[in-house]
Amino acid sequence: MRIGVPKEIKTLEFRVGMTPAGVHELVHDGHEVIVETNAGGGIGMTDAHYIKAGARVVGTAKEVFDQADMIVKVKEPQLPECEMLRPDQVLFTYLHLAPDPDQTAALVKSGTTAIAYETVTADDGSLPLLTPMSEVAGRLSIQAGAYSLQKANGGIGKLLGGVPGVGPANVLVIGGGVSGANAADMAIGLGARVTVLDRSLPRLRELDDIWGGRVTTRFSTKHAIEELALESDLIIGAVLVAGAAAPKLVSAETVKAMQDGSVMVDISIDQGGCFETSHATTHADPTYVVDGVVHYCVANMPGAVPRTSTFALTNATLPFVKELANHGWVEALKADPHLANGLNVHAGQVTCEAVAHDLGYDYLSPEDALKAA
Asked: Which of 124, 313, 339, 347 is most buried as measured by Cβ atoms within 10 A of its Cβ?
């Protein structure tokens, strides 16, 4: 199979879909890997690194898309990239379609087979290809929040961990999943006073055991969110409904009542955000202020640390890329129902139930799509 790795074109996105080590694995299996020139520049990998690993480097994204049977990326295809996709091609990347009707329409129109990292599952119900970026985003959220709390950056002027004689900042983490737990871990490490909200009592017990009482756990209700938001210096939104748009858990009314200079970081922004006042921002212009509250809503947070993120992502995606390349997408998905859960669009139809529901498309199950294919 010919696997194409284009350079990412989203604003200030420096990650790349595959490391040279990943290229080496695929070439060893007998596949051809086509990499756009300087695709790995953001992680310190030159064209020479990719050529040494066995890749063929080409000058433009169009050459990659024209020649490849499967495109491996990081971020969702931008509209110019969607126009280069073909019906006989497989796209394997993060998609986050539910809050993005334009991208969904473009993928449907292209006729391509689009498999989303974020809806591939594991035996325990986890999302193995979302996990590494959730870990990165969770940890980054505290760095971004701490920076935004500084007075010069619009914040109230609090040091997250305080100092002897001066109390620490109050951090509220909404959602105790992978990104929320990593956010809480970083905040605890910096000395903040941390509260985690979740709707799963078993998960709250697990988090309480992990930190041995160094974090306060609360069952998530509207009342709890409204109450705790008013006394929080930093709120981390870390909720996820796989494939679907994120629920709006902090209302605009609550934001208006919060203290001036407090900060909100919305990790869920890839799925539309979990604050009513959220809208996607970029690393070039990451924050904005609503009713005195600083919002950080960068839609590709892990892109800020592309080297760490790319290596972590390739560690997780490479086994699935090899399945798709070695067996073809149809046989690979038939053999692995967890990978089949990643199928979001095929032959002009939406094959992710949550996306179809949120955007008003007819739903075709992955099983039926595989039968038709």
From this structure: 313
